[in-house]
Amino acid sequence: MLIFSKMKFPLAHTIAISLVVLMIAVCAPIVNAQTTLAAQLISRPVTNDDINGLKLPATVERSGGLNTVGLGQAAYLEADVDITVPASQIAGVKWTIASQPSGSKAVLEDSPLGSNVPVYLPSDRLIYQVAARKLFRPDVSGIYNISATITTSGSGVATLSMMITGSTYLGVSACSQCHANGKSGTPFSMVNAWSQTAHSQIFTNSIDGQGAIVNGKPYPYTSECWGCHTVGFDTGAADPNGGFNTVMVQSGWVAPTDLVAGNFAAMPKALQNVSNIQCENCHGPGSNHVVTGGDPRLISTTYTAGTCVQCHAEAPFHIKSMEWGNSAHAITTTDPAGNAACVGCHTNNGFVDRIKGVGPADLSYDAISCQTCHEPHGETNPSTNLHLVRTLATVTLADGTKVTSKAAGAGTLCMNCHQARVDAATYVPKTAGSTYFGPHEGPQADMLMGTNGFTYGQDIPSSAHREVVADTCVACHTQTPASTDPALGQVGGHTFKMSFPGTSTIPAEQMVGACQTCHGSDITTFNFPLLDYDGDGVIDGVQTEVQHLLNNLAVLLPPVGQAKTDITIDATWTQPQLEAAYNYRFVQRDGSLGVHNVAYTVGLLKASIENLQKSSK
Fold first, then answer.
1. Is the sign of the CA dihedral 201, 204, 209, 215 positive or negative?
2. How many distinct helices (H) and strands (E) make up the chain?
3. In 347-461, which ranges are continuous DSSP H helix?
4. pLDDT digits (tens, 9 = 90+) for 352-390
5. What is the Cβ-side half-sphere exposure of residue 95, based on CA atoms within 13 angstroms?
6. What is the Cα–Cα distance from 114 to 137, expressed in whole angstroms?
7. Sign of CA dihedral 275, 279, 285, 289
8. Rounded CA gap, 611 and 457, in Å?
9. Does residue 244 contact residue 255 with C-beta atoms inside 8 Å?
10. Which H or E element spans position 108?
């Protein structure tokens, strides 16, 4: 194992660097070199959920889908093609290792992933289908260029290429040489921030008996956990690659039978160096990156979900991946991609760049994923931010209202995007009617805070949710169902869904646990009765009452006098009608039918109805 105490290289390393750089220049991958149809070549993540749920062979190893791969470890290559191409037209895929390091005998093997294994990303499943798969294991340190040519009988040809870097693990001591001595907030200080996170201590604490406690005793901590809690632990890798199990064998370390304090300190230093969840778990083995002085092409840096779900996907205990896969975030619309004004909320890279203040905007499409909302290096105060929320900075809504993390907790993150995007007081009087008229979809932050509706100059009250619900959005929308819940993974958690409609085998469910904290344990639905808001003499559930108010308002909007379930706004609408229409859209697009802020919702709708009735006389 190579550990560099200083980032200086003798002549042999300088020559090696020159050869690697030359090889990159000569053999750099050309993506879509020849293509007349939509296609992609990827390294597919493989999770424990895949292995268990899809009944894959026991020999299948987990993978983060990185392009930097430990020697002897598996890269599951996948050629995908446009889903609109009939399967019968996929004539074949020709695979080639275009170049590989001297002495390598690595070959492309049949993939153990069968036809029942879908394309990994939920967003990709909407546009791609699998054309062919291969398994690849690098055996010599260096660069491998692999190509796949997809041929169809009627839709064209696509020649795709990718670079795999086969490397060995060095552990955090090597990363620290460059990434622990720089200015805070830069890539050169990330080890310092990481060292304060739970990731950096998970193995240390667990082997010392300070991990999970079950029935009053430390939960058994065996090698089944080490695959995620150490660097490069993979008993399926035939080649020594500097990972935990390689160093464990070399050092002769035997796991302690008793989990007590001092176990970690007694481990060989070389083994401590590859313990815990650290840089190379997420970026891949770094030997080639290090010997070239930090060439970024020789280490993986990706926002794709595979980086996280290689560990956070083992139901019913590690369920974040399953939940996210059933969320709307995982399949956010591709329409805003390419639009600098939209990608800051609608795409992963766009949001991250926006929060970092990086420009110009990345216009590519990538669904909202783990790293959109979580900053994995721990640069957002990990001592007080256990879940590594990417930003807790104050959010300023379009009407100037400032929402601090002191007021909204972790929900401040959500409010960066879930807001109206316009200032109602100035927007409504100056904007002509059209199908686009109204607040942006999802103005939940404005509604929860009781601001930015069109108030007609009135002081409209708010409910207490914004004051009494700690962490606001997060407190309710990420409630965790019990591990025995039939709807596990379909509701709550990282699905962010508050309700599940049910199926023929799974009953419907509403996540009312957070409501019961204040409203009582007898609450079983969001639609519980409070008052007769619509004035019809019957006290219905609050959501029913709000829907009645929406219906009553719709009757007063064009075509006037007709009952309707929605409105269509155009340039003929009068100013009073547009004022009421803004509030109609504001309540409708909030989506909670009053639950977020019943007082403000009811106040806006009643004020709109009253003003329209006056203006029509």
1. positive
2. 26, 15
3. 348-356, 370-373, 405-408, 412-415, 424-430, 444-449
4. 999 999 889 899 999 999 999 999 998 876 556 678 999
5. 16
6. 18
7. negative
8. 12
9. no
10. strand 108-110
Task: Give the pLDDT band (50/70/90) at residue 35.
Answer: low
Cβ contact 412:393 at 8 Å: yes
d(CA 278, CA 589): 41
Q: Are 341 and 77 in contact (CB under 8 A)?
A: no
Please say whether the beta carbons of 445 and 414 come within 8 A. Answer: yes
Going by C-beta distance under 8 Å and a sequence separation of 6 or more, which residues neighbour residue 592?
444, 447, 526, 543
Q: Where does residue 404 fall: left (phi above 0), alpha (psi -120 to 50 degrees), or beta otherwise?
A: beta
The residues that bridge with 214 in the sheet, in sequence order, are 217
Q: Would you give the distance in Å from CA 361 to the centre of its chain?
A: 19
Q: What are the contacts of 412-416 at 24+ separation with CB within 8 A?
A: 412/472, 413/373, 413/389, 413/474, 414/444, 414/445, 414/472, 414/473, 414/474, 415/444, 415/445, 415/472, 415/473, 416/345, 416/351, 416/355, 416/391
Q: Is 574 within 8 Å of 581 (Cβ atoms)?
A: no
Helical (H) or strand (E) element with 106: none
Cis peptide before 559 (omega within 30 of 0): yes
Report pTM: 0.89
Q: Are strands 142-152 and 157-167 parallel, antiparallel or unpaired?
A: antiparallel
Contact 200/280 with Cβ under 8 angstroms? Answer: no
Give the 3-state secondary structure of residue 542. Answer: helix
Kindly compute the dihedral angle of the four CA atoms of residues 583, 584, 590, 595, in this order, to the nearest 10 degrees.
90
Residues 340 and 357: their CA atoms lie apart, in Å, by 13
Q: CB atoms < 10 A from the CB of 378, how many?
A: 22
Closest Cα partner for 469 from 412, 518, 507?
A: 518
The CA–CA distances, whole Å, from 303 to 67, 138, 188, 351 equal 13, 23, 19, 11
Q: Which two tokens stand for residue 341?
A: 């004004």
What pLDDT, in 10s, does the model give residues 39-96?
999 999 999 999 999 999 989 999 999 999 999 999 999 999 999 999 999 999 999 9
Q: How far is 549 from 557, CA to CA, in rounded Å? A: 13
Cβ neighbours for 611, distance < 8 A, ≥ 6 positions apart: 456, 576, 579, 580
Please tell me the distance from the alpha carbon of residue 587 to that of residue 420, in angstroms, as a whole number.
Answer: 11
Omega of the bond prior to 529 within 30 degrees of 0, cis? no
Please give the C-alpha separations between residue 31 and each of 146, 159, 265, 325, 376, in angstroms, as whole numbers. Answer: 11, 8, 47, 27, 29
Tell me if the bond preceding 122 is cis, omega within 30° of 0: no
